[in-house]
Amino acid sequence: MSTRVSRISMRTIVLLVVGIVTAAVLTAMPMETQKAEAATFDAGHIIDDEVFYDSTTMTESQIRSFINSKVPACTSGYTCLDEYKENTTGRSADSYCKAIAGGKNEDAARIIYKVSRACDINPQVILVTLQKEQGLLTHHWPSEWRYTIAMGFGCPDGADCNSKYFGFQNQLYLGARQFQIYRAWPNSFNYVAGKTNSIKWHPNSSCGTSRVYIENQATAGLYNYTPYRPNQAALNAGYGTGDSCSSYGNRNFFLYFNDWFGSTYAGPSVHPKLQTYYTQNGGASGLLGKPTSEAKSYADGGVGQKFEMYVLYRTPQGQYLRTTGTVGDEHWRLGGGGGMLGYPSGNYTKHANGGRSQAFQNGTLYWHNSYGTYYTTGVVRTKHDRLGGGDGVLGFPSGEYTVVGSGRSQAFVKGGIYWSSRTGAKFILGGMAKEYAAMGGPKGDLGFPTSDYVTHKSGLRSQSFQVGDMYWMANSGGVRYILGGMANTYAATGGPSGELGYPTSDYVKNKDGSRFQSFEVGDMYWAPGRDVRYILGGMANTYAATGGPSGELGYPTSDYVKNKDGSRFQSFDVGDMYWAPGFKVRYILGGMADTYAEAGGPASALGYPTGDYTKHKDGSRSQQFEHGTMTWAPGGDVVVTIA
């Protein structure tokens, strides 16, 4: 046989005249619920060559299981495909198929498997062809005739089927072999790949023709086997019926294949720059698996591509790097090696908490089922890494890397990191981190942290911020913060270990602009135009009982004074307050306070106050002391009486 055979002689040899067109080509045959979209049917590229000629897609057992899953309950008196058996004859090898051994009582799965392997045709193609030609996989009352012309081979349109090609095994073998003949002699038949072809819509010539550029040999083979293109009405109908010029053979082939076995396309090819690594690591059945995306080429000359098991990158320097799992997927979504994170710079890591992480040139990606997928980058990443990364004091990220004004921040499972150009990167933990975030973080009252979270030997936790300080102590009422000048004064007294002790109230902002906060041993006050003042012990309690700054004493005008003899003193807008060991807290107001102070206070002849400052109904005032009495009446002077 010459390498070029005329179209006429070739038809004789391979029986092109059989037409391979049966009633099924012109019958919609809606056998099951449609999943595939007929709208995705590409007339010029129905199926990839890599898929069509791959005889390894199913084992004999898988073919049998598939047939069993599709055949419904068979009507009594009929033999459905799952039960069909026949004796088969051996066939010698030729230029198109390898030899096939005969067998006794072989079932359909066995016959399909043997034919697909011998003729190098995808068994899925044979199964779909049996369905689109005769509906054999889902028919529950098939006639013997359907098995006789199972593949529609030798059944030309408008003529009787040729009995020479009858029989189930005969049909499968000759149909599969025919596709290899089309492949071996691509330019010797009506429809040729790589060219624009005129294809009929329907056997009725009045329906006209269409012009189709056939992209590959498998698609050309389908048209040579079933020489009609489905029109738009056929495609719009899914498995249903279109119009009088609709044909369905190639449409049904496409729909059944997609619904039963997935895409008719082999998928992306491996990028040439990745091919060496891919081959060395086992190809499709090896380390990476099959490619699942088109490759991406990056501006720096690198390349990346997703595979079933990994995402593979090749750097401009020729280094191969991998990512995988949710971390790999997120990195790919962010642009892969050409994105903001760059190429992998560390190994994919499994953590004891069940999480995963991987370092990249410009950041680290973390994933955990409970926290999500986030990356760290820049100064936040540097700080987090220094603190032990995902296994360190902060744990995994629980929020996105965020721009806060000119600063940066990120939440972690156990705290947060905050950075500004003035403060640097600082971390905060636990309840203090939660309170800080609730206050608005850097946008809140405290501003950015100016120190790291500090753990003291006493168990105290503290941290400084641009506008204040924050504290926590076990069993002390929770997290407390102090702002502004009050924070500075409190720190100067020694903070929680100083004379005020731990804060027992939140920092209070009053409507008049003043500020107040209580502590274990006293209270602190500030008002516009005033200095920060604090009062301790019983004097603090007495002052609060009088109404504090809005009471009769007014605002403190001096610091709380500790005298060498153990006594205490403090001045206010309208008076003074005293305390000494063995005495109660007493305060004196107005002119009486001035007179008492001028006389020397507790060191004067009057001694220490022993009675409260008393307001009488007539407007006069009086107070008892150790050694006398002090009185005042409206319009008069203060009178001191020494006992």
> Compute the gyration radius: what is it?
46 Å
Q: Output the strand order for the largest sheet.
A: 5-6-7-8
Q: What's the helical proportion of residues?
A: 10-25%
Q: What structural class do the secondary elements suggest?
A: alpha+beta
Distance between the termini: 147 Å
Morphology call:
rod-shaped
* Average of per-residue pLDDT values: 91
Number of strands: 32
Largest sheet: 4 strands, antiparallel
Number of helices: 17
- Report the portion of residues in β strands: 15-25%
- Uncertain spans, ≥5 residues at pLDDT below 50? 1-23
Q: What's the structural blueprint in terms of helices and strands?
A:
Elements: H1 7-14, H2 49-52, H3 60-70, E1 85-88, E2 103-107, H4 108-119, H5 123-134, H6 144-148, H7 168-184, E3 195-200, E4 209-214, H8 217-225, H9 232-236, H10 249-261, H11 272-280, E5 296-297, E6 303-306, E7 311-314, E8 320-323, H12 325-333, E9 349-350, E10 356-360, E11 363-368, E12 372-376, H13 378-386, E13 402-404, E14 407-412, E15 415-420, E16 424-429, H14 430-438, E17 454-455, E18 461-465, E19 468-472, E20 480-483, H15 484-492, E21 508-509, E22 515-518, E23 522-526, E24 533-536, H16 537-545, E25 561-562, E26 568-572, E27 575-579, E28 586-589, H17 590-599, E29 614-615, E30 621-625, E31 628-632, E32 639-642
Antiparallel strand pairs: 1-2, 3-4, 5-6, 6-7, 7-8, 9-10, 10-11, 11-12, 13-14, 14-15, 15-16, 17-18, 18-19, 19-20, 21-22, 22-23, 23-24, 25-26, 26-27, 27-28, 29-30, 30-31, 31-32
Helix pairs in contact: 3-4, 4-7, 5-10, 7-8
